[in-house]
Amino acid sequence: xxxxxxxxxxxxxxxxxxxxxxxxxxxxxxxxxxxxxxxxxxxxxxxxxxxxxxxxxxxxxxxxxxxxxxxxxxxxxxxxxxxxxxxxxxxxxxxxxxxxxxxxxxxxxxxxxxxxxxxxxxxxxxxxxxxxxxxxxxxxxxxxxxxxxxxxxxxxxxxxxxxxxxxxxxxxxxxxxxxxxxxxxxxxxxxxxxxxxxxxxxxxxxxxxxxxxxxxxxxxxxxxxxxxxxxxxxxxxxxxxxxxxxxxxxxxxxx
Length: 255
What we know:
255 residues; five-stranded antiparallel sheet; three-stranded mixed sheet; 4 helices
């Protein structure tokens, strides 16, 4: 029996490593290689761990490249590696306690709560009401503290349709144009990955950033983003099929 044909937009998977977007939840390293396929699923292997997983063909979207060297495979929905298999990722919803002094529930709301999978919290006594009030206040304080911490610690800029450059840089800049805009870097390091990708890191300690370029060889590397002193992305490049290069920068080890 003949092997199932590879869809035309996925033919690049046969010969090149690639990354999923969005990344699969539960798997840290986002670089994969094609193994084989049947009529309903495609087998891929993680290039770092060697783990092999089957993914349904219906979850494969379009293939996009950032200025040619970066191969990105889009997923039609967010997936999770769970129990040795791939399943759709579901975000959990937490029901908040009933506010003290809130108007009584209607008959329809009572019926909805009775059918809900999450047990509703009912006030029964002054002691219970005080306890639930304290719990609700603690939850709200925790949420506010988390939001404040995220805003203070993550000073990054993600490229949008209205903001196409960062420090005057965009996805068409090569090393020469970057140096002409920012000056000579303090250090210049190279990293070869997967036997094909070439990464160049131009460090600007006075700006507290490192500019990352990527290409199939050292003569064709182009700008793909900027990381801060902690190697966290502060600027990414939009992909033609949607999304950006943030997952690539986050999975790129410091060099």
